[in-house]
Design brief:
Belongs to the FKBP-type PPIase family. It catalyses: [protein]-peptidylproline (omega=180) = [protein]-peptidylproline (omega=0). The chain has two helices and ten strands, in the order ββαββββαββββ. By secondary structure, it is mainly β.
């Protein structure tokens, strides 16, 4: 996915192709279908499959970073997107999560790494990385593969320091050592 409603890809001859779409929605819908086609053409998936719909800006999220996310979750049914089982898109409250904390399904932890502020991604999560053999009573049947569209609205990097101008600066973008003292003699980085 590229800016200005473009999508680029390589064919089996390694030739580069670009497609320009009429709207942002059209390129996102196409990209979701590419993700579904990848899933359906694979014999088995034991990890999350994801496809960026919008890249976003800034530093990619890593373990320990906090995110605020708008999302919709669908059941994967009949080789495609089925019924919605959960969404916070039209609600006032975003989901807050800390990557690596284990507070969300493993598929989200895996599939959201590297996402940037403003980024959108389609995730297809196999049952073992979602709700497994138990499911969620009344919403997610046991052994369900799930599809999510997630949008990162805010990112708070785990290692942030305040710059001299009062702006927040990530220590990953700086050559300066981390301001957090380390008790084991190793730097926090």
């Amino acid at each position: 996915v590229q800016p200005n409603n473009y999508s680029t890809f390589y064919d089996d001859q390694r030739q580069n192709w670009s497609i320009m779409f009429e709207s942002e929605k059209a390129v996102m819908d196409f990209s979701k279908q590419v993700c579904i086609a990848k899933w359906n053409s694979s014999p088995v998936f034991d990890s999350v499959l994801y496809q960026d719909l919008l890249i976003g800006e800034g530093q990619g999220a890593e373990g320990g970073d906090s995110l605020e996310v708008a999302y919709t979750g669908w059941l994967f049914q009949n080789n495609g997107i089925g019924q919605v089982f959960e969404s916070n898109v039209n609600k006032d409250k975003l989901l807050r999560l800390k990557l690596g904390s284990g507070k969300v399904i493993k598929g989200w932890e895996e599939g959201m790494m590297g996402m940037k502020k403003g980024g959108r991604r389609c995730l297809i999560v196999p049952p073992a990385l979602a709700y497994g053999t138990k499911g969620v009573a009344g919403r997610v049947p046991p052994d369900s593969t799930l599809v999510f569209e997630v949008e990162v609205r805010r990112v708070k990097l785990v290692k942030e320091a305040s710059g001299s101008d009062g702006q927040s600066v990530s220590s990953r973008d700086s050559l300066a050592p981390s301001p957090v003292p380390s008790s084991d003699g190793f730097s926090a980085d």
